[in-house]
């Protein structure tokens, strides 16, 4: 059964897959596809159904020519989900619940495209109980993703992201990294470098109540992004401005880092709209 929060979107990888399995993406293997690769002799590719009469008549060696196409193949799809303490922040909804929706939509979209899907969750380490390897079993994916609703851990760091690259495929895949990225920039850079064989889509979860919709004057409750513990802060205009400036500086630093790897981040608030991801890939392929 497909959960109501799993909303598919359309994606297309911007490279040729080297998988040997038939799928919906441009590939490098010869086979049944629509991308013309060239002509070869019937002896080299014995498929008379693809005989090219015009090229056969032109061949100076009088060999029967057939048209060869690149096969459309599958590609591995990964959802990397941050379940550290900072993801417990709750504005209108909890960040981790938004992450659950995003991960389920990725799993559903991969299933619709015929691609393999893997979920990898981490805090201090990779959490294998709520992760699974690449497979076509979308129901298993939904069942594993649903477990994100039960995570309420505080004082959980994010160092496990450094372990994630070893859980990825050796073949180039599409990797959605779902996090609020409240971690040292050096850690983000180290992880991106370790995953450089893949195409990364950073999905940044920032709730407006973290830095924009703050009290102008009075007490407010905030979650410390490092410990996950709630703190009470007395706000005044100068304190509020400091929060806003800090997030703007952080966003600029993240975008500078992502651009060095030729990635563009997607920023989400308290609501996930799958069309946003569809438009992202439309722009990527244009």
Automatic annotation (TrEMBL):
Residue limits of the DUF58 domain? 48-250
Q: Which domain of life is it from?
A: Bacteria
* InterPro entries (UniProt xref): DUF58, vWFA_dom_sf
One Pfam family of this protein, by short name?
DUF58
| Record-given protein name | DUF58 domain-containing protein
Biological source species? Methylotenera mobilis (strain JLW8 / ATCC BAA-1282 / DSM 17540)
